[in-house]
Amino acid sequence: MATSSKTEASATETLNPSIEEIQPINGGESIEQVQQKAPEVVEEATAEKQEERVRESSNDKIQPLNILLTDGQDIGQKRKREDHPLWKTSLCSYYRSHSKSCSHGETCRYAHGEEELRPRPDNSWDPTSERAKKLMKSENGEKIDSLDAREDVLMATDAFSESSNPGLEKCFVHLPRKWSSDDLKSFLDEQARGYLNQPSRLQWLGILYKTAKKRKGMPIGFVSFESTEQMENAIEGLDGKSMGNKQIQIANVIPRSFEKKARSAMYLLQSTQQPTETFLSNEDLSISVSINGCEDGDKVDDDLVLDASLSRAKSVRDVVAPLAHMPYSDQLEHKKNSLMQSLKRLTRNARKACPDGVPLPEWILRSRDWGGLSCKLEGILESPIVNGYRNKCEFSVGYSLQGKPTVGFLLGNFREGVTAVEEPVDCPNVSRIACKFASIFQGFLQHSDLPIWNRFNNTGFWRQLTVSSAGFDKLQVGSIFITLALLVLIQQVREGRTPGQAVEVENLETSISEVLLMVQVCSVGFDDEIITREFERMAQALALGSTTSSCSLPLTALVVQDHRGISNAAPADAPLRPLSIPKAGIDPGPEALNNAVEPRINDYISNLRFCISPTAFFQVNTLAAEKLYSLAGDWAGLGPDTLLFDICCGTGTIGLTLARRVGMVVGIEMNASAVSDAHRNAEINGIKNCRFVCAKAEDVMKHLLEEYLNVPHKQDQAPHTSKSNGKDDANTGDKDTPVDNVLDLENCSNHEVDDAKSGSSCPSNGREEHEDSIKKSCISEDKNTPVQQYKDVVAIVDPPRVGLHPTVIKVLRTHPRLRRLVYISCNPESLVANAIELCTPSTDKTKKVNKNNRGWRSMSSAGLARHRAKSMPNSEPFQPIKAMAVDLFPHTPHCEMVMLLER
Ligand SMILES: C[S@@+](CC[C@H](N)C(=O)[O-])C[C@H]1O[C@@H](n2cnc3c(N)ncnc32)[C@H](O)[C@@H]1O
Description:
Alpha-Beta Plaits, 24 strands, S-adenosyl-L-methionine, zinc, disordered N terminus, CATH 2.40.50, eight-stranded mixed sheet, 903 residues, single chain, zinc ion binding, TRM2_met, binds S-adenosylmethionine, 15% strand, seven-stranded mixed sheet, alpha+beta
């Protein structure tokens, strides 16, 4: 397996000093001595100190090099060092704690004070710096950076005022987010009284206004006036007025000319269905806002510097590919360092959660060998393709900053008022095929009779375009890739570059043979006839675009998703309408729309074909995912006697690619389309030892473990084979199987925080029906099929970003026969939280969780996990054995991590 070994070696050297190198703290006692005395009390502080020491010590390590570089006057080398993306991105703790003196002087790689501090490659700041603290506060909604808010407002291009006369309306910026419209009105009324009470301004009329509306959760409100005089009085009295630590700013509200078209569409629709008022209020909604004088730059202060970096971060490239400015090897190092922090966090939190009187587990004691990491981080596997690797892109539909209907990426967070969408220009992770389809669709929207989606008032029709591409011929890719890799290597050697730098594999795009387009709309309130006509036109435009493009642009499936929700994240069961793709130049007529093929796409992993539905999860970087699954399989220690649980299995990718190495695979997945894909994929690839269960893992895991593992061992049983018949297959179990159907739903309902984050596509019409469906998915219909006993039970879990449900963690942790668990995570934070619960020792005296305690709302995920660990039934904890990262997302800070847990 290829790893960026060079990068890793140097990073490990500098960031992982052995414990001997760490100086004693706390009056000469070593960290260990202090910890053994009162671990809970001193742990956090010592860990931080330890990290500081590590940093200091890593600084020591590069010091001689720095001196050499300056003394040797190798200016090129020095510049190279200063160009390093991490140069001066952390504050020097030595400088801070030693009266602003540091023996490394200007060669110190850490910043001596806030002035020297540089933003990190992902545009974040050293968390201990003033800047980071300020930002953190604003993120928490307590304080908002003034210019940040201004920037956001400037980026709001959708409609969010309801005035019929924008000339007599103003936008108030920097209002408290939590204010309602009533708060804003009270404030304005109070201001009026205040002025009237001032003797020096007896002539003052007060702040009179017509309407005042506050945008929920945002720092802005709209105030309209009866007359220009009223408006000017308000500006005179309130613009610049202090509001907490901010000053109110009053912005112009400018009607957008480009809205006329949408307006006429609205009128058209208004005559067919909707009550007049709805659309009349909509038609004037589209405005953009500019702040009086904010471009003048008359307030050059610290905030402005901060704002400059924020605004830089808001180019589409910076939003979509924030690490793209770094060489690929530096991106890998950056990700590795941040994963190391997560592994340290796991150790610290598990130590903290370890119950009184229980000795620290071996792995925590051993963590000293790894500089505080909970286990060895074995490295990071590079992505085989660095550019254009995404096989799936979700493009938003909205207005650009120039007011043009655009298909691309949102420039920021809607909650902050950012709605501007920019074209996917210069985003190296997006394929040219995806960009091309976005541009064809954008061209179509400019002439559509239906309006684009407005995020502020949740009206409009066109919402999103998803481009999924696949169909690399593996042999072709293999040979192209080997040739290119060799060429790149030769080139790198010639140019003196290190391996691991960006590999352009442009030709790979030419081997894409399938493209599925999914267009998300909201059909509410629109006439069916108009919709059908627009779909016909859209299908023609997309088909024409694909055939007339200068580059190869296959279009093999087209489907519309109808979604009414507020955000574009549609539930898995949102209605889908497949459309047929007309032959270029031929008008197929409305009938043709109904003759569409099933919208599916075929991709290949480890020489298996995977048929994927539009809403099923599939990793966005297929070649890197292949590495990920094979690593997980290698670490799982599989054999013919292994029963493998593939938890959160999606279309069955992990289980099916490993099926031939195990006795039996049981996959659990809540998305019904993905489960039906998994069955089909087993069939396509002739795999018979897999069973896929459509349910939430938290609802069925306990029963499945019992079904397979609690039966008496029957030595003479024939090896189990199973059929994959396209249904929720439950082809195991016999009359003797003690399937326990007592549901553990009570437990689930204790964890609102997780439930709120996960949607279900499984039936849930009432508790009884739900319970019934869970029972069905766990009990065999064929009562005669014997349950095979397996010597070895392994679980590979690959949960969504929120991590595993606490019920699943509890079931896995407390089942004594599950000895090995491979955790694949795309979110280190949830991995840390779940691993705390899996790996912290428990006692007989478990604490009861207070169900009415709402304190968890303000807890970090690790804090919550520590809390839950206290109520874990007494059971043998897992130990983290090793971890490795796989980079599926070059140019972004994201990364997959695989961790092996054993007991
Ligand atoms: C990160 S994806 C992994 C999918 C699959 N392992 C793969 O690599 O293609 C997570 C999957 O978990 C599913 N999922 C989310 N919550 C779940 C739950 N509570 N129970 C079962 N599956 C769930 C999602 O639908 C999604 O398919």
